[in-house]
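Lab notebook, bench 4. Still working through the backlog of constructs that have no structural model yet. Next entry is a single chain of 223 residues. Request: give me the structure tokens for it.
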Amino acid sequence: MRTNPSFALDQVDEVRRLIQEHPWVTLISHTDAGELVASHYPVILDPAAADGEIVLLSHVGRPDEQLHELGRHELLVIVQGPHGYISPGWYDARPAVPTWNFITAHLHGTPEILSDAENLRVLAALVDHFEDRMPEPRRMNGTPENADYAARIVTGTVGFRLRVTRFRAKNKMSQNKPAETVERILAELDGAGPYASPSLAAEMRRARDGAADPHAADPRAAE
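Model written out:
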């Protein structure tokens, strides 16, 4: 991510929203051997976190905890929201180049390893988070048989809590374009073309309509 102030997203609530809506993240560690290790897992927000905090709960499958040396180093967590190609043909007749609209956050913190009991609770909460949308949710502890099965396999995972100590986020949604250009881009994203993306259009409208509070900047957000 470019280290400049353009399109900076500093609002904690907006970063939390991004995590809630796009919980499939990338975990990156820099190990003692100088290697970069990357994995992909779902995360949820810790409901016990204080206002203004970002605290993640998740797990890794063994042996990823060894590969990442989990708990020994700072972990980088990358959250990616809607993104997509923006053609200069959607602008006007003046010279222009294509670009990419996106919303993303880089979160930093050192994981705290959870006990098996805590990990089991987090796994149940993770299942509930996704199953809540189902017409007939399948709970991890919904039946004694399911609960017994989950208790047996929990040792194959390592749970962690990550308190975000700093973050850098960007929300680049054509905010620097004239209103009429933004409307043309939205029409293309809502259409049936090769780069149509209703989810990106929705995120652009959110940015355009000023859903984020511009006065809620957090001091932990990197410039």
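Notes after review: Confidence is low (pLDDT under 50) at residues 211-223. The longest strand covers residues 75-86. Flag for follow-up if needed.
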